[in-house]
Design a protein that fits this description.
Blueprint (H helix, E strand, L loop, with lengths): L1 H5 L3 H8 L5 H4 L2 H8 L6 E9 L6 E11 L6 E7 L8 H7 L1
Antiparallel strand pairs: 1-2, 2-3
């Protein structure tokens, strides 16, 4: 997740979170724990990743969060795509289902 956040421009961060959050705040241990250990009853984290064929290392390309709202049939979906993958239809695939 730390490496993923390093790939995001200030504009991408602002568009996702509606304010400019500094990198050190976004990758703080306490915040990452809250993002990674979720309440599966009320929220879900979704990740799109790829594996570099040369190194075998995994790379996160896109992160989404689905959260249940007060009305049990309503939810909120938020997606952030790594800057290098923007404009390639990644976000459309998340919303299209």
């Amino acid at each position: 997740m730390v490496e993923f956040h390093k790939t995001l421009s200030e504009q991408s961060v602002h568009l996702r979170f509606f304010f400019l959050d500094r990198l050190d705040a976004r990758v703080a241990h306490e915040r990452l724990v809250r993002q990674c250990f979720i309440d599966y009853e009320n929220e879900m984290a979704l990740v799109a990743e790829c594996i570099d064929p040369q190194t075998g290392c995994r790379e996160i390309l896109c992160v989404g969060r689905l959260k249940r709202q007060l009305c049990p049939t309503d939810g909120e979906l938020a997606v952030i795509v790594s800057d290098k993958c923007q404009g390639r239809g990644m976000g459309k695939k998340w919303y299209a289902g």
